[in-house]
Structure formats: C-alpha cells, structure tokens
Task: inverse folding
C-alpha cells in the first residue's frame, strides 16, 4: 500500500489537523489511491516536453481610461459625505504627533 511511505498522523500534525482514528482509517485508502496516481504520473516520459510556467496563455485585458462626466463627483458632494471637512479639504485625525 502506498500510504506505508507516508505517516498520516505526522502529516496531519504538520497541517495542524486533529484526526480521529476513524478519519485516519477513511483517509488512508484515499491517500493510497492518490499516491498510486502520482506514481503513474512519475513513469511518464517528459524528456521532450518543454517547461512551462503557465499552461493556459494569459493576457492582461485593459481598457483605455476615459473621462465620463456622469461619474464625476463634485467637491461639494464629496465633502458633504465627509465626517469632518475644513474648507475644501477632508479633516482627519492626526496620527503622528508633531515634534517641537
């Protein structure tokens, strides 16, 4: 059985999983089946397969930045939602004390 190579309790402890004996009995055959598939993959000849970083080609989809006047928030509307305003600016609490 391939799970003889792996100490399931040790792996569970590393993953910080508290497995019961019943869970270990359930997962052991599943892990054994998985390891059998991994062994089958290890036998494949991949000598002439080029290394790839990404299987599916990807591209960055971007759109041009376009100014849309209907979405522009006026200064007055923005400041109307502010908890505190001082003139034309948002007023925020000081987070760094001034020296002096």
Result:
């Amino acid at each position: 059985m391939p799970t003889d190579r792996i100490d399931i309790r040790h792996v569970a402890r590393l993953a910080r999983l508290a497995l019961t004996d019943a869970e270990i009995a359930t997962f052991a055959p599943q892990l054994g089946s998985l390891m059998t598939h991994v062994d089958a993959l290890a036998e494949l000849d991949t000598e002439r397969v080029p290394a790839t970083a990404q299987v599916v080609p990807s591209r960055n989809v971007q759109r041009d930045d376009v100014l849309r006047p209907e979405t522009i928030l006026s200064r007055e509307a923005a400041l109307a939602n502010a908890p505190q305003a001082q003139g034309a600016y948002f007023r925020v609490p000081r987070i760094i004390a001034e020296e002096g």
In short: Residues 2-42 form one domain. The chain has a mean pLDDT of 86. Residues 21-42 form the longest helix (22 residues). Residues 2 and 35 are 6 Å apart (CA to CA).
